Amino acid sequence: MSVVVVVGNPKPKSRTLLAASRVAERVAGRPPDTVIDLVDFGAQLLDWSSPAVAHAVEQVQQASLVVFASPTYKGSYTGLLKLFLDRIGGGALRDVTAIPLLLGGDLRHSLAPEAFLKPVLAELGASSPTRGLFIVDKTWEESPELAAWLQYEEPVLERIRARLGTKAAA
């Protein structure tokens, strides 16, 4: 039962990556097994014969839980994440529980995970039983948005943890 984080931030080792890893740990009750920082692939994301990208896609398809994270760009997720998602066939994530996560500078973008990322994940077959999560990037470490989301979604998160065989993270 693997837990994977996929981050579409064009900046390596970004706040988005740190926040997504924290969300995965809080949801799963343990750190993620795999963190895929898409910026590390560079132009390989455009090369459909890249074995490294194919391996990352395979890890996502075989995961139990995936946090898909991106900064908010122009009110939506990044092209970097879009390039990766385009590599996944329709329905290929049917056994995956997905958490859509976007970080951004202003709560006015707080519907972006629901409006733009969650529908793409559904098209790929993923189940997203929680609301999409938006976190203000400048306060991601204290994140009142994450605390409120965790409290609201706790009944659903308990079912996810039960499936993973874990308990809530402290």
Automatic annotation (TrEMBL):
It comes from the Bacteria. One of its GO terms (molecular function) is oxidoreductase activity. Residues 1-140 form the NADPH-dependent FMN reductase-like domain. InterPro entries: Flavoprotein-like_sf (IPR029039), FMN_Rdtase-like_dom (IPR005025), NAD(P)H-dep_FMN_reductase (IPR051814). Keywords: Flavoprotein, FMN, Oxidoreductase. It holds the Pfam family FMN_red. Signal peptide: none annotated. Its EC number is 1.-.-.-. This is NADPH-dependent FMN reductase.
